[in-house]
Each structure stands twice: as structure tokens, then as C-alpha cells.
Design goal:
This is HTH cro/C1-type domain-containing protein. By secondary structure, the protein is mainly α. It is 46% helix and 0% strand.
């Protein structure tokens, strides 16, 4: 224990204080009631649409009229009937099931079903995979 020297005690008082309450703590119901009991002046104010979602849904948006006036019929492009027939014929010529073809092109069998039924939205990448797997052109002239 050489080099430490004599031990001295510090007799200075240490004062520990609480932090001032935060804004959220001042608004707490307990704090408001305590201030009322103490006779402090309290200002209460009701905010417009506070705690509701009325502001988001009650007002009409700027696009409402534009959407109402829009009479254009929008629909997704579907697989053409000649592509459906060509796909089905090429698959049957190779004696493959929809599941086998789907596995060859790394897609789900549902994708092949949608293409053959005409419900799919045409994706040129998938059509290209199908053409390579079946070894025939499905779109355009043969």
C-alpha cells in the first residue's frame, strides 16, 4: 500500500434534487388535481378534433371531383387468346404437365394455370422462359 498516503474523509454535504417535471408530467391528471388543490391558476383548453380521426376522413379530398368525373374504364392487359392456345399446344406436344413446366422455368404451377386460362397479366420475362423451355415461339408469328 505504499504511495497511497493518508486516507481523508470528505465532509462536504451532497445535495440531491429532483428534476423539474416535464411537460407531459405537468399535464398528468394527478398533477392538475394537485395544482387545483393548491390553488394554482390552471388554464384548460379543448383542442379542435383532438383525439379523433375526423380530420383525415371527414373533409373531401382535392382529387374526389377528379375521380368522380373520370369515366375511363381501366383494366389490366390480359394474355391474348393465341398465346394461351400456343402455350397449351406446345406443352401438350412435349407431354408435360403444368407443374413440370412450372418447375422447369422456376415458377409456381399457378402461374402456368393463369397463363393458360388467360387470367395472367403478361410478363415478357416469363413468356421468354416459357419459349425457351418449350423450344417454340409463343408470341408473334411462328
Amino acid at each position: 500500500m505504499a504511495g497511497i498516503g493518508p486516507i481523508r474523509q470528505d465532509w462536504e454535504p451532497v445535495v440531491v434534487r429532483k428534476k423539474a417535471p416535464t411537460a407531459a408530467a405537468k399535464k398528468d391528471e394527478k398533477a392538475v388535481n394537485a395544482a387545483r388543490r393548491a390553488g394554482a391558476e390552471i388554464e384548460t383548453m379543448r383542442k379542435y378534433n383532438a383525439g379523433t380521426n375526423k380530420a383525415a376522413s371527414s373533409g373531401t379530398s382535392l382529387n374526389t371531383k377528379r375521380l368522380d368525373d373520370d369515366t375511363e374504364n381501366l383494366a389490366h392487359e390480359r394474355v391474348p387468346s393465341d398465346l394461351k392456345k400456343n402455350l397449351m399446344q406446345a406443352r401438350l406436344d412435349k407431354k408435360m404437365t403444368q407443374a413440370q413446366l412450372a418447375q422447369m422455368i422456376n415458377e409456381k404451377p399457378q402461374v402456368i394455370q393463369e397463363y393458360e386460362s388467360g387470367k395472367a397479366i403478361p410478363n415478357q420475362q416469363i413468356i421468354g422462359k416459357l419459349e425457351r423451355a418449350l423450344g417454340t415461339k409463343l408470341r408473334g408469328k411462328k
